[in-house]
Amino acid sequence: MTAAESIHQRSPAVLPGVDVLGYAGGRLSEVLWVAYRSLRKLSRNPFLLFFTLMMPIIWLGMFSQTFGTVFERAASSSGQAPLGYDYIAVLLPGIAVMSAIQSAAQSGFSMVSDIETGFMDKFLVAPISRSSVLVGKTLADGIRMAAQTGIVLAIAFLFTLLFGWRIPFASGLAGDAMIVLLTASFGVAFAGLSNSVALFTKNTESTMAVSFTLTFPLLFLSTAMLPAALLPSWLQTFSKFNPVSYVASAARSLILTGFNWTEIGQAFLAVAIIGVLLYSLAVLAFRRQGR
Amino acid sequence: MSAVTARSRFEEGVGIPSPTPMIAVEDLVKVYGGADGAGGAVRAVDGIRFHVDTGEFFGFLGPNGSGKTTTIKMLTTLLRPTSGRLSVAGYDVVKDAAKVRRILGYTGQSIGVDGDLTGRENLRLVGHLYHLPGNVVRDRVEELLGLLQLTEAADRPANTYSGGMRRRLDLGSGLVHHPSLLFLDEPTTGLDPQTRNAVWEYLRRVHREERTTIFLTTQYMEEADQLCERLAIMDHGRIVAEGTPRDLKAAIGSNLVTVRLPLDDGFTAARSRALGVVQSIPGVEDVVEFDQGVTMRAAHGGATLLEILQRLESAQIPVQEVAASSPTLDQVFLRHTGREMRVEEVQPPSRFAAGRERREGR
Predict the structure, then answer these.
(1) What are the structural domain ranges in chain A?
(2) Considering CB atoms only, which of A13, A37, A120 is closest to B180?
């Protein structure tokens, strides 16, 4: 009953929040709350959380077995052998990029499920920016991608110490942090695609179909799995137009040789370009809702 | 009530001398599809006009597909109108959508609750999305949990809740920021009668104590009759009737009168005489025999009823009982739409079905 009495206290019809915090602060708080909600959801699904974080390790093991001998033969026949490192050192940054792409391709699913359950309406009737919803959701995905990359790097480092894997980790901890930043920001940028499709189609199957159809060609027609020197020449040309190649090459140099700022700069430029393109599309798709 | 109107208008800086209605709708049209010229365009809302006063409890009735949900989506900025004017608290809903969103609360037809979050987290999230300060959010959320009797379940994920609990939680999430205007799209569809009564009680309190203007759509005539001060009935995208429940019922203009006769040896003879007598009374229509006597529709007002009694008495027909019942909203609805109100129950969402539930949408 005491609760009933206190509902007489009524806040004014127009809330002061946005004015007090300032425009930028208000937007930031929206983004962070949307992201917090997504991460909370993830934490409530322990199976999903576990497999999301372990997926890159499984891939690393799988691909290193499948392609390892192929790589070593190719490397020796092209006169590069003996190398001071294992194929797994070449593969590790590729797997980091691959996990980010994979998570990015699934990013739109939560958008569709929010539309289907009606939770999206909660966001849309609230006095928040449409782009805050989009950015908040993909920020949460970015944090997840960063955790995936961080864990796979940490485990690879552990195996290097314990089992004598030959991975140089040439740029040290700072380089690992750069790889995490690079792959996560790439993943967030690429998530714009999956979210655009999700918002245009409002359908999980379409989102899945479009995202996966584009994901695998982008991944395998790039330098993510093998260095450019070992690719056929037409693929070398194609991979130059594939943003995935720039991110994978920059990350690979960080593992094998150290900081190469030209490559890192190119990678972030590629991320920025696809980010701007795909998020423009996604915001357009968001605005189209309710027409 | 007028004090509230004056204050909120003042705060919002809408300096119009005459009281601004909370909602004003003029010539509102929504056409779905048909943009490609292939035909098949649906005029879901076909030129409606109405207003809702500040502090009013307003009901919007109509069968599925009548355009109720489309209208509420346009008013809550979720859907753009094809043409026409809509204003909320003096703001244009399309141009000033951001301002309108700060004023309104909305509980939709599909349940906008995140099943992975606890009840408390669901409510807090909404509070933060409205940019309320942290301590205000905390206090308000505890208050709402108490009010909605969800305190005990507050730390359980919402997908463990029953249908009624989810509905209450969803209602709460529309109220966190003390909206001046609350939209409820079929808030009790799919609830058991007990929960329905609890929701009604709570809505009355919000209306009374917080002076919230409430706009409610429903398929339940009883709900509209119990709660709403004024109603509009919508059918095929148009408003076919508008008024207070009392006026709408009075406009039906007739009562149902039942005359029961003693079930003795003379019953059959008495019944046919009674039939002849009442049929000759002006204002009496649709006289029908049934197994205990006769029923008829009698023109509104006591005069006709008195006439019936006097004529039966002077014809020396023994009368066991006479009952007159007022018209119900069901009859009002039938009169204006030519259909019985048919309620299509929505299954209360289970934790597995929740994500699959499709919205009616149109």
Answers:
(1) 26-287
(2) A13
A270 CA to chain B: closest CA distance, Å? 33
Q: Is the confidence at residue B14, as pLDDT, over 50?
A: no
What is the mean pLDDT of the segment spanning B180-199? 86
- Partner-chain contact A15 B210, CB within 8 Å: no
pLDDT value, residue A11: 40
B11 close contact with A: CB closer than 8 A: yes
Other beta carbons within 10 angstroms of residue A58's beta carbon come to 12
CA quadruple A133, A134, A140, A146: dihedral, nearest 10: -160
Q: Which residues lie closer than 8 Å to B124 by C-beta, 6 or more apart?
A: B137, B138, B141
Q: Return the pLDDT at B33.
A: 79
pTM of the predicted protein model: 0.80
| Residue spans of chain A under pLDDT 50 | 1-20
pLDDT at position A232 is 85
Note whether ipTM > 0.90 here: no
